[in-house]
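Homework help board

Subject: predicted structure for assignment chain

Our instructor gave us this sequence and asked us to write out the predicted structure in token form, then describe one feature. I got the tokens but I'm not sure how to describe them. Can anyone check?
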Amino acid sequence: MTAKEKNFSLDESAQQLYKEFQGIDDTVRADVSLLLESELMEFLKQEEKKLDHLRLLLAKAVCTLMDFLQGSRLTVSDPNQNQNVRAFLSILKKIAETTKSDNKLSCRFRGQQHVGENDTTAQNDSEIYDYELSLNNVILDFNMATIVEEREKENAKSLSSNLMKAFHTMSVLNIFNFSIDLGLGDETILANIALTLKHLARYFHPGIDQTKYVVSDEYGYPSINLTLLAGTNQVRPDSLQALVEQIKPKIVGPEPATELSRFTTVYDVIIATDRFKKKLPRMPIEVNSVHQLMLHNRPDPKMTAEAVQVSRLVLSKYGNNPRMATEMISSIQEEGYRKIQTDIMGKRLTLATEFLHHADGRENKTILHNEALRNIEDGLDQIPDTIYDNISVHGNEVSALNHQGQKTMWSLHDKILSLLSFFKQRSTTNKKIQDIANKDVVFEQEDYEVIAKNFNISLYDASRLVSLLRDCFEDDGRFRRASFEKNVPEFVQYEGRVFAFLWHYLKELETRKDRVTFLNSIQILIAKLNRPQDVCAILLKDIFNSSAEVSYSDRNGLILGTILLRKYNKEGESNIELTPEEVLLVQDGLNQDMAKMATDYIEKNRELVIQKFRSITEKLFDSSAQKTLAKDQMPSRFLLYLLREMIIYFSLIGGSMAQSIIKRVIQEFGNPQSSYYKKMKNKSELRYALQLLQAACRGIRRFDDSRSSALFDEIKSNQNNFVKLNGIRSHRIAVERLIERIYQPLG
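My token output:
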């Protein structure tokens, strides 16, 4: 263990969490009043620190691996190389010991962001070093490395520069993705990884006669993975080459085998075929695998086969140029356009144009075009309007300003230009919809065309939809519930798309009264939709993907999410602004499929959830410590209600992440001498804090945790101290009611 690693310290709670990565701290604190920091904030920081520690291990592993491969270009017998292997295996073992789960370490070239300290210092073409590392659900890229450096000043010194050096090495070595199946990190797996590293080093050493060692793919290009497959299984390269030639006609011949239509390469066929994989078991490390570039795991076999045809064309054209093949495939898949910068999007669309031109001379041209254009359209659909605001489309000319303010010109295929023009116009139409309550806003023919295409409806229906929306507002811009409810039968025919549409543009109505009215209106629409799971997905992403921000719509989103979790609800029959606490009694009426969907999202996006909860808590602590709020500062009452809604939602869906957070809320708000109560300036907040605590205590009982009774006893023992927080009679009654309620059984 290095000095830096020794400096990495956590409190006893977090050390227990380290023993089981996704476990929770079971230790009941005897005297939380002695804590100088907030119990809740300390927990959130420790969760963040735990993930950062994994990122540091991930970065060390990748940097060590790249040092090893860079050294392999010089020699394969240097003692330092053996030291690098031992260091690499040691890091992998630490990762396995930390997570206690089946691990897969992955790296992929992304190329969607300029890499640098900020947008102005990042150089043009720096996106060639934009890689993304992942370990299960923990992500690390250059931007995250700079954040970790700031948070872990001692342990993460030079993290971003070291990572950039590793990314540079990958770029030089033409490595654009790799994966390492670490499993549980047992000695057998580590030994197989060491063996694979030995052959990987030999592959990259230029002094070795590659003609006798390297196995070529079906296009005649050197294949890292086929070479590793032969080496790790002690199979003669020429023998494996003969097998490749035997399978080749079924992949790239004039009549490809239908039964192999879902396989992109001969390598994929070999590792998936029982009679081959017994003698040629898959090695734990793969490099430049097409599977990590093109997502073929689709439910529809026909769509999978079409995606494979696209990949095969790219490999046949650029198989000897891994960088070009990677960038080309990224240009024709949805993932290649996520969180992309404007000028890089232009480069990507230019490559996609080149692909379409290559496909023009093929018999399967229509399939290739349709598959690529479908992916591109899905990718462009995710790009925010702010990107399209930087683009100008005049006839066949497209221009944009890059991150440094320089103008660039693009020459695009007609079909891609048509897609881009649509999304450019959609951004303009969206601005009109956002201002739809303004009677002076005029919708033109092109606006209706955009809406019609977006919803897959006729121009008449598009015009009707705009009219229905306008009818929901008074002349003074106030939202009208009666008009909305009258139009629900017509809204319903557009299913989840209309919810996404309405939620996106109406969730942040200007006044609180209008937001509450909208909440009570849209739940009526939700109750009539055939696919409520689409609404659930929209709400979860909307709330947690913007984890650094807190919006007034977050509370309404959680209220709607809680409604979706139940098979039956009474809220639609009344006006609500808060979820009734009685929903915590729901057992048989819980929609298990919806709850599982939410739990899976929360567990998968653990870090986003922690960041969101921390953002809310920080705003609450800051607000409650102020006698007078700034104009744009959210009131503590709202933030306490927001936490209450989140706790109720977590209580219903369950899961280790939810249980851990609820427990910490109880420890913070169940201690009258905690940091929150000590710093609170306005005693009127106590009412809402006790409501939050009561919901959390009743919610934790759903987890059937016998140790929660100790938390309740601690709260009861502090009853007099709670009463002393405010001398008025109503507060004393509220405390007594709290003590009574937390001991009541559920159901």
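Reply (TA_rk): Your tokens look well-formed. For the description, you could write something like this. The chain has a mean pLDDT of 87. That's the kind of observation they're looking for.
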